[in-house]
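F-box domain-containing protein structure dump, as promised
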Amino acid sequence: MAKRIRFDAESRRQELPVGGGGGEGGVPDLISRLPDEVLGEIISLLPTRDGARTQAISRRWRPLWRAAPLNLDVDDLSDEDHKRIIFATKILSEHTGPGRRFSLTGFRLHNRFAKIDGWLRSRALTGLREIEFSYEFQISPLPRPMPQSALRFAPTLCVAEFACCSFPNEIVSELNFPHLKQLTLNAVSISEGTIHAILSGCPILESLVLDGNIGYRCLRISSATLRSLGVSDAWNYKEVRLEQVIIEDAPQLERLVPRPPKCDDLEIRIVKAPRLKTLGYLSKRISTCEMGTMIFQKMVLVGHPNPTRTVKILALNTNPNLDIVVKFLKCFPCLEKLYIMAFIQGRFKNTKNVRRYASLKCLDLHLKMVHLIRYQNNVAYASFVKFFVLNARVLEYMKFAVARGECDAKWISYQHNELRLSDRASQCARFDFEADYLDSRGSVCIQAINDLATDDPFGR
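structure tokens r here:
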């Protein structure tokens, strides 16, 4: 019986292709045995240049790249602008399609509008599922037009990102995006009617980021599927820009991320979002933030609201005056993670009695993590931190992001004594000091807002 088993195993090994099929040293090439459809999907997930190089593996692989769903990242083709144009044109003329992903970012328009339009009309991109399109960023009073051909993929798109361009308003009312789950518009000129027409044509949209756009003052959200929303106004005071966000009905919304406003008059009103779990960054530049009976005006609580228990993650972009922060803890008593991005200029309010707020349900039962960004070594900061150290009974982790050059072993040892970390209310709490913050005011990247695999976009 043992001899027969060995013989059968040896027979099977001899039947497998070796050598020229991609294996080395006689090792069987099992990948090449996969069906063409599977290999095509693998190739389409590779960077553009790597996908094209699979043609050199063997005769078996040679026709696969041209038939696989095309993943074309123009920026990946070369470091030189004119070579990227040559290579992209060649690929689109030779590939038979269909398209999976087309990425053209930071492109210098000059007199190449017809060239881009021709690319987008190529048969190789038919059935495109993902598009990333933007011109080179520049301050210009006349937004550069996005080719209407970029919207011919509306019936098949699942992910779309447009930036630094002017949206073709005249044809959008005729379009539907039945498969679109993720939409990002960044520094785009688009009318209020157009943006709402797009949203009404996205029946399964899950993630939406509208960042720094012009052309509309009010954004109204009514979506049965939306789970993540990122919004921000624009720098340009001369143009029509976002001033009001009204979430009328969003039963699945879990995440609302107002990226740092550029102006001081943004209003946010949440009428119905019963599953909201992640909120921030909130700042004084948001003139009004209203959630049911809860109203904050420039971070100051107005009235006596009912607490909201769904919010677990909160990010504040402010010099964290303890009086203000504690009011947020009372409004969100089930909060588990707190991020505070402190402005470099200015100081925290010095709170001498750090125990006068000790009777907070959030501190006793729920708050597990505090991340303080731009921590500075002074009495006011230390007083603020000691409030959490001495009162957060279930705290597991507290992180301090400090300026580079300050975070050496001697400085950290001094902070441990100054902040009374040995007297912590939660004995299992860990404290980390890291020199890792970026010099920006509480920004969270667009990719993190769109990443629905995690509920915490601020932890990236």
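The first strand starts at residue 70 and ends at 73.
lmk if u need the other ones
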